[in-house]
Specification:
This protein is an alpha+beta fold and about 250 residues long. The chain contains five helices and ten strands; from the N terminus they run βββαβββαββββααα. A seven-stranded mixed β-barrel has the order 1-2-6-5-4-10-7. Strands 3-9-8 form a three-stranded mixed sheet, with no helix packed on it. β5 and β6 form a beta hairpin. α3 runs antiparallel to α4.
């Protein structure tokens, strides 16, 4: 994979706090010193040049943007703070007053938006492969600088959930069912309030339908059958998880 070909996105990371009075949101857009799903480890200092050139206090009119779903046609506010600390790239954003921004703000208040990610480009001489035989992929990419374009509020969706067909261990199925149930509870409450635009409510309804479908598929997925030798038969009965109770809840 050529890391330099395209505009990249990476995330998601934690929401820290919201200020209802000022309509501001505090968040981490990236974390330092951790190998992520792209096998990258971003180091402190990787965003410093971008912040200097296009950050909050920069003179450029092309500031680092605050978007929804990495969509440049969906700005939802502006960053009023962008700094690197020991943990990662910390940001504070002030929400706008457009319909899209108000929908995003309602999603923050309802707990639907909890994650964020970045849109950026790699820089050729700032990527170095580091060998590490102890890792599954035998190494990782050490990233010392990127060109940061935007930070985005992202909503949990189909691409952020484990494929239920791949969840074959019973304990994983229970864990995933609990996760789905929690997400459904958040969305149900948000839908009940009726806040925001018709588009927002439609999106919530679609996510609910998706999650309910995932729950049904999860309930119908058979766990992996593990064969025991006669010498290693289990000595105690393991209680079967009652999937009907989960499904009937919804």
């Amino acid at each position: 994979m050529n890391k330099l070909q395209t505009y990249q996105t990476k995330g998601a990371f934690e929401l820290k706090d919201i200020d209802s009075e000022k309509k501001r949101v505090a968040m981490y857009l990236s974390t330092f010193g951790v190998i992520d799903s792209d096998n990258d480890m971003i180091q402190k200092g990787a965003f410093s040049k971008s912040i200097q050139e296009r950050g909050v206090n920069a003179t450029s009119n092309r500031k680092i943007a605050f978007l929804r779903h990495h969509n440049w046609e969906m700005p939802i506010g502006k960053f009023v703070e962008l700094t690197e600390d020991e943990k990662g790239l910390f940001a504070v954003a002030e929400m706008g007053n457009s319909t899209i921004a108000n929908d995003a703000w309602n999603d923050y208040k309802d707990g639907i938006i909890r994650e964020h990610s970045i849109g950026f480009k790699y820089i050729a001489d700032k990527i170095k492969w580091v060998d590490d035989p102890s890792l599954e992929k035998k190494g990782f990419y050490n990233i010392t600088e990127v060109k940061l374009y935007e930070g985005s509020a992202v909503t949990f969706g189909a691409n952020e959930f484990t494929n239920v067909v791949d969840v074959i261990k019973s304990e994983q199925r229970v864990e995933l069912a609990v996760k789905y149930a929690n997400e459904i509870d958040v969305l149900t409450k948000a839908l009940a309030t009726g806040d925001g635009s018709d588009e927002r409510l439609h999106q919530i309804e679609m996510k609910l339908k998706f999650l309910n479908g995932q729950m049904l598929l999860l309930a119908q997925t058979e766990p992996q059958n593990v064969k025991h030798s006669e010498e290693n038969q289990p000595t105690k009965t393991i209680e079967t998880f009652d999937w009907s109770k989960v499904i009937n809840k919804f």
